[in-house]
Design brief:
This protein is mainly α and 705 residues long. Helix content is 87%, strand content 0%.
């Protein structure tokens, strides 16, 4: 055993030591892994931060492009909304730069500061450019351009009415140089415009004498010349500001590129550091795992040897002890570990084996003595049992012989030995029960004999009554068949009456509808008669007025003398015609009144007829309901009689079946009587304690009513 593991060290402690070595090794490996994870998390967080900064820089680049687009949009469309969007983008860009500066990254601080300054220069240049464009005028009617246009329109109005072609040509040349400058922003056209102004002045002086009109043209020309000069100077300055804005934007790009390059390099450096740390961790973990495995192998080797050697020695001792070698010396009795405890236990087993050998020898002698005593006692018991068995066998044999002869009136009174006494009591009880059963069978046989005779007599009476009942049922069935046929015929006639009543009701309803139409027609005739009477009254009134007018015309004609004679004749004819019309209208009115009275009387008769037909229709409905009820009752009676007829037929069949069954019962009673006689003859073979031969008459005396 190696000195590295002392004898007093227990196996559990050695195993715990081995586990502790393994746990320490794995703890170191896990700690290394956790440290590597921590490094990876730090590098990953740093990489994510760098990526976020790259995204911010990309947004800054995008914002600068958007700002440039808004700047160009303003220069093209001259809309202040583009400048507002430009200011918002610049503000967002400044916020993003401040976000980057908030990291306090010393490597990026100077670059971000330069970018902030460049952004301020660019924003200031754009603001100056916007101010200059406002001075020039965002629309053609504002600013210097608006003033120039108003001045040129003023002088054009003054010279538009002139017939001097030189003045108009000079005016057109000035406008041409103005437009060329506006389109090309070239100072050459300013000089040409200035020379043409001198030409225009010379032509005006030639055309006009000194005076108010020439002065007005000269004043308007001076205003136009000054406004164009101011506009041209401002335009040239605005062009310079545009170049300043472009230069500021271009100057800002290197700073943006420097910031982007810095974060790109930072990302690459972070990735390189992460890869180096990962390689270092892999090498460290590999070395620690190898060291842990080596330590475990060395520990397992020494601990295994410290355990396997004592186990082998203890196994040899156990094997020798199992073979019966009780004189051996148990190894390890002086140890204080588990092997010492096992050696002490094995020593106890050795001493117990020695004691067992002594006890087995003593037990062998005791078994020999007890076996001889057992054989002696067994022989004595068998002889006594044989004697008791012979005694019981003789008593049972005599009892069985008497039982075979049919004698059930005896009991075994001589007691047996204690072992067979229960058998004697069981046999006596069996004989008593068998005697009682045979006595009951005898009484039942006598009762069956008497009952069979009574059943035979009752069956004869029942057969006779059944024949009479079958005849009565046959007559009843015939009568019911006839009654069913009559009821079925009544039901058919009731159904026909129901159909006739239904048809009559339909015709009554149709007649009632016709009368209603007639009443409506009479009502319309009455209304027409009243309208005709009204018309006749109007005609009568017209005839009266015509007659009155004709009379007045005749009077006026008479007053006119000879001149009105012809008119008087016409008036007389008109008067006579009006009188005949009035007379005819009166006759027609009388006829209409008579016709109306007749029509009203006829309408009253028609209404009374309709009411009578309505009452007849109601009566027909009541008759139809009663006929329906009678038909339904007839159908129900027919169905009920059919069911009764079917029941009577079933009763007839049942009666016939009962008659056949009575005959069968009569034959069965005869057979039962014969079998009861045979049973009594068989019972005479047994000798019982109590005989009941006198019971030949059964108390059953009922008869079938």
């Amino acid at each position: 055993m190696p000195a590295f593991f002392p004898v007093a060290l227990r196996i559990s402690h050695r195993i715990s030591l081995l586990v502790l070595v393994a746990l320490l090794g794995w703890a170191v490996v896990v700690g290394t892994f956790l440290f590597q994870r921590h490094l990876e998390a730090g590098y990953k967080k740093s990489a994510e931060r760098v990526e976020e900064r790259q995204i911010v820089v990309s947004k800054i680049v995008s914002d600068l492009h958007v700002a440039q687009l808004e700047e160009k949009d303003f220069l093209l469309a001259k809309h202040m909304a583009a400048i507002e969007r430009f200011d918002g983008v610049v503000k967002d860009t400044g916020s993003r730069i401040e976000t980057l500066r908030a990291d306090n990254d010393t490597g990026a601080t100077s670059k971000l500061e330069s970018l902030t300054n460049a952004l301020g220069i660019y924003s200031t240049a754009v603001a100056s450019l916007v101010a200059k464009n406002k001075e020039l005028g965002l629309v053609s009617s504002d600013g210097l351009e608006g003033a120039m246009r108003r001045a040129v329109h003023n002088i054009e109005n003054l010279v538009s009415g002139l017939e001097n072609s030189n003045i108009r040509a000079s005016m057109l040349m000035m406008r041409r140089h103005e437009k060329d400058f506006i389109l090309r922003q070239d100072p050459v056209y300013v000089a040409k415009h200035r020379d043409e102004v001198e030409t225009f002045k010379a032509e005006v002086k030639k055309e006009f004498r000194p005076g108010a009109e020439r002065q007005r043209i000269m004043d308007a020309l001076d205003i136009y010349t000054a406004s164009f000069r101011f506009y041209a100077e401002a335009t040239i300055v605005e062009q310079g500001l545009r170049k300043d804005v472009d230069n500021a934007y271009v100057a800002m790009q290197p700073f943006v590129s420097d910031v982007m390059a810095y974060y790109t390099a930072e990302k690459a450096r972070n990735a390189s550091d992460n890869a180096a740390a990962e390689q270092w961790t892999i090498r460290m973990v590999t070395g620690l795992i190898a060291l842990t495995v080596f330590s475990l192998l060395v520990s397992v080797y020494f601990i295994g040897r410290s355990i396997s050697r004592p186990v082998a020695a203890m196994t040899d001792a156990m094997r020798n002890l199992a073979d019966g070698q009780t004189s051996l010396a148990v190894p390890g009795l002086s140890r204080r570990d588990e092997f010492g405890a096992m050696a002490k236990a094995l020593e106890v087993f050795r001493l117990a084996a020695i004691s067992k050998q002594k006890l087995e020898e003593e037990a062998a002698h005791a078994r020999a003595r007890s076996e001889a005593e057992r054989k002696r006692l067994q022989e004595e018991a068998e002889s006594h049992a044989q004697a008791r068995l012979m005694e019981a066998t003789q008593g049972l044999a005599s009892a069985l012989q008497r039982l075979a002869k049919g004698d059930l009136s005896f009991q075994l009174t001589v007691p047996f030995s204690q072992d067979f006494e229960a058998l004697r009591h069981d046999l006596n009880q069996t004989l008593a029960q068998l005697n009682g059963a045979m006595g009951g069978i005898a009484e039942a046989g006598y009762a069956i004999d008497g009952g069979a005779r009574e059943i035979s007599q009752s069956t004869d009476d029942l057969a006779r009554r059944t024949e009479q009942q079958a005849a009565s049922l046959e007559q009843t069935a015939a009568a019911l068949d006839e009654l069913t046929a009559n009821v079925r015929l009544s039901a058919q006639r009731a159904a026909q009456a129901q159909n006739i009543a239904t048809q009559a009701g339909s015709e009554a309803e149709q007649t009632n509808r016709l009368l209603e139409d007639t009443i409506k027609a009479v009502s319309r005739i009455e209304r027409s008669s009243e309208q005709i009477g009204s018309i006749i009254s109007v005609i009568d009134e017209i005839a009266f007025q015509t007659n009155l007018l004709a009379l007045n015309a005749g009077i006026e004609a008479a007053r006119a003398g000879e001149a009105g004679r012809g008119f008087a004749v016409v008036a007389q004819e008109v008067r006579e015609l009006a009188q005949r019309s009035a007379k005819a209208a009166g006759e027609i009115k009388a006829l209409i009144n008579n016709s109306g009275s007749e029509v009203r009387e006829g309408g009253r008769f028609v209404r009374e007829t309709g009411e009578a037909l309505s009452r007849i229709g109601g009566s027909i409905v009541d008759i139809r309901e009663h006929v329906n009820a009678i038909a339904a009752a007839s159908r129900e009676q027919a169905i009920g009689l059919g069911e009764i007829n079917s029941a009577i037929n079933h009763l007839d069949q049942a009666t016939q079946s009962n008659a056949a069954m009575v005959e069968e019962n009569n034959a069965a009673g005869s057979v039962l009587s014969r079998e009861a006689g045979r049973l009594n003859e068989l019972l005479q073979m047994f000798q019982l304690q109590e005989q009941t031969p006198h019971q030949h008459e059964h108390p059953l005396s009922r008869r079938v009513a």
